[in-house]
Amino acid sequence: MSAVLTFETLIDQVESGTVDTVLVCLVDMQGRLMGKRFHAKHFVNGAWEETHCCNYLLATDLAMATPDGYASTSWERGYGDYVMKPDLSTLRPVPWLEGTVMVLCDVLDHHTHEEVSHSPRAILKKQVNRLKAMGYDAMCATELEFFLFARSFDEIRRSGFRDLEPISGYNEDYNILQTTREEHVMRPIRNHLWDAGLPIENSKGEAETGQEELNIKYAAAMDTAEFHTIAKHAIKEIAEQQGHAVTFLPKWSHDKVGSSSHVHQSLWQDGKPAFYDESDELGMSALMKNYMAGLLKYAPDYTAFMAPYINSYKRFMKGTFAPTRIIWSVDNRTAGYRLCGDGTKAIRVECRIPGSDMNPYLAMAGMLAAGIAGIEEGLELQAPTRGDVYQGDTGMIPGTLRDAAAALKGSAMLRKALGDDVVDHYVRAAEVEIEDFDRVVTDYEIARGFERA
User: Fold this and answer.
1) What is the DSSP letter of 441?
2) pLDDT of 284-310, one tens digit each?
3) pLDDT range class, residue 403, cuts 50, 70, 90
4) How far apart, in Å, are the Cα atoms of 420 and each of 49, 119, 396, 414?
5) What is the DSSP string of 242-286?
6) DSSP state, 357?
7) Which residue from 192, 223, 218, 199 is spatially nearest to 89, judged by alpha carbons?
8) Above pLDDT 70, what percent of the chain?
9) In the 8-state DSSP scheme, what is residue 3?
């Protein structure tokens, strides 16, 4: 595919009038695109070198509030600037918006011009580079699950987010008849993203009313994070263009299954799968076993990156295809870690813990750091679990964001891999979510206790 633009091609398109807008974006802590819309002629005349943004963009919550407690920026420090440095290798068209292209930015300190360490792109890049220094390339893929609704974002917001009606009336897992009815949304998603240079494989109905899944081809870890972030953004915009809302909230209703974002991963060396060993019973190399043992040992440490909000933990329920335990198994969808492609060169591990609300840069960075630790420590992988992994109470995934934040805070492995400043920054992000939720009186409390308490 050759849809990703060169700067020279962009100049030609601007001069011909084909392109008049450039979205200059950074990836924020929540995995969203933030930035500016540039007149394309101004961008190619000089703004391609750098622009600026307020440094609170990497210290806000979901609602764009500016909570205190961050070492990097605060009211006391005056909320200064970061430099947004366009990475011209990420230039791509945005086919669902007229005359528009997009570029992602590295975030630099305004004074030193060094990358800001807690920027999601910088965090993942650091772990990718650690592996490169060891001689390996990290390859990943993410699955994007989400719900489509009958009404638009504005209609649902005006209703107070009540009486939510999915676009379909029954479980549509793999159902071609039902997904045909949704092609006015899903077809432009697939086609526009393909034309934007994302290697889209397919979409399908998922295991609930109105639930969809989009799959993107296996790629280098940095590319995968970019594809995921752009796809998630595009899905929201394209659905809105068709009059529908979409949510990546992992659990929007207690009586519906949740939405995940499984992460497939493997290491390659010199263009060959380093996880494969044809002499092994399952095809697993010693390297893969070390890596997977690291994933398992340190899973609690990076759970806050895979499940970053209060709602994230409502998804982990028995019998819903969402995992509850940090256990691996062979091609078994009840386990937190599933071995896929056993006995073949496509062998890989699928982590089933992340929810649809994850920031892919952070989640994959945590996994890669854990895998590296497993290799460096020569960890031994225990035998796979068989049968229904829901049966048992050992090796449980942290049950709340509070538990996951404590594990992140105490992680010597992640402090060594990411840096104390990065760990402390995202511990504070988790604390902000907890503090905000703890202040709120929920509908559940009122209905349960109004009369009977």
Assistant:
1) P
2) 999 999 999 999 999 999 999 999 999
3) very high
4) 31, 14, 26, 8
5) TT--EE--S-S-TTS---B--EEEEEEETTEETTB-TTSSS-B-H
6) T
7) 223
8) 99
9) -
Inter-residue contact 359 to 224 (CB < 8 Å)? no
Q: Output the CA–CA distances (angstroms, integers) from residue 424 to 122, 204, 205, 265, 417, in the order listed.
A: 16, 39, 39, 27, 13
Residue 260 β-bridge partners? 355
Interacting residues of 298 by C-beta distance below 8 A, sequence separation 6+: 369, 370, 373, 374, 411, 413, 414
User: Which two three-digit tokens encode residue 278?
Assistant: 């044809």
Helix (H) or strand (E) holding 311: none
Amino acid at 352: R
Q: Are strands 219-220 and 137-148 parallel, antiparallel or unpaired?
A: antiparallel
CB 107 within 8 A of CB 84: yes
Looking at beta carbons, which pairs linking 172-178 to residues 24 or more positions away fall under 8 Å? 172/205, 172/206, 172/208, 172/209, 172/210, 172/211, 173/204, 173/205, 173/206, 173/207, 173/208, 174/204, 174/205, 175/205, 178/205
What is the rounded distance in angstroms from the CA atom of residue 273 to the CA atom of residue 42?
Answer: 44
Report residue 33: phi and psi, to 5°.
Answer: -90, 125
Tokens 């996994």 correspond to what residue? 367
For 135-257, where are the alpha helices, taking DSSP H only? 153-158, 176-180, 183-195, 221-241
Q: How many whole angstroms separate alpha carbon 429 and alpha carbon 362?
A: 13
Considering the entire predicted model, what is its pTM? 0.96
Phi, psi dihedrals of residue 221, rounded to the nearest 5° = -55, -45
| Cα separation, 2 vs 5, whole angstroms | 8
* Three-state SS at 36: strand
The token pair that represents 356 in the structure block: 């649809």
Q: How far apart are CA 27 and CA 35, in angstroms?
A: 9
Tokens found for residue 154: 């504005």
Q: How many CA atoms lie within 13 A of 152 on its CB side?
A: 9
Q: Hey, what amino acid is at 422?
A: V
46 contact partners, CB below 8 Å, separation of at least 6 = none
Q: For the purposes of burial, counting CB atoms within 10 Å of the CB of 195, is it exposed (0-12), middle (13-18) or buried (19 or more)? A: middle
In the predicted structure, residue 404 carries a pLDDT above the cut 90? yes
Q: Residue 191 CA to chain centroid, in angstroms?
A: 21
CA distance 21 to 190: 23
